[in-house]
Design brief:
α1 packs parallel to α4 and α3 packs antiparallel against α4. The termini are far apart. This protein has a single domain, classed as Chorismate Mutase Domain, subunit A (Up-down Bundle), CATH 1.20.59.10. By secondary structure, the protein is mainly alpha-helical. Helices cover about 85% and strands about 0% of the residues. The protein contains 4 helices and no strands. The radius of gyration is 18 Å and the shape is elongated. The structure holds prephenic acid. The site of prephenic acid (PRE) has 11 residues, from α1, α3 and α4. This is Isochorismate pyruvate lyase. GO terms for molecular function: chorismate mutase activity; lyase activity. Keywords: Isomerase, Lyase, Pyruvate.
C-alpha cells in the first residue's frame, strides 16, 4: 500500500504537524511584538499602518518566491497583525498606565 494515494487522515496529520510549527513561530513572534509595544509611546505608533503595509508587501513577495498564494498570505498576515495590534494595545495600555 506504499504507492496508494494519501487519505484525508494522512493529509490532516501533515496539516497538524505544520500547525505545531506555525504556533511555535507565532509564540516567538508574540515575544517580539510584546517587546515592540513597550518601545512605543502612543497608540498611533502601536498601529503603525506604514509598517503594516511594509510587512504585507514583503510577505507577498516571499509568498510568490515560495509558491504560496500571495492573496492568501496577505489575508493571513492582515488577520494576524490585527490580532497582534490588539495585543500590543492592551500591553501598551498596561505599560503606560493609559
Ligand atoms: O513592527 C512593529 O512595529 C510591530 O509592532 C509589529 C507589527 C506586526 O505584527 O508585524 C504589529 C503592529 C504594528 O501595527 C506593525 C507591525
Amino acid at each position: 500500500m506504499t504507492d496508494s494515494e494519501p487519505t484525508l487522515a494522512d493529509v490532516r496529520r501533515a496539516i497538524d504537524e505544520i500547525d505545531t510549527e506555525i504556533v511555535s513561530l507565532l509564540a516567538r513572534r508574540e515575544v517580539q511584538v510584546r517587546r515592540a509595544a513597550t518601545l512605543k509611546t502612543d497608540e498611533d505608533g502601536v498601529r503603525a499602518p506604514a509598517r503594516v503595509e511594509q510587512v504585507v508587501a514583503k510577505v507577498r513577495a516571499l509568498a510568490a518566491e515560495s509558491g504560496a498564494s500571495p492573496e492568501v498570505v496577505e489575508r493571513v498576515y492582515r488577520a494576524m497583525i490585527g490580532a497582534f495590534i490588539d495585543l500590543e494595545l492592551a500591553e501598551h495600555r498596561g505599560t503606560t498606565g493609559g
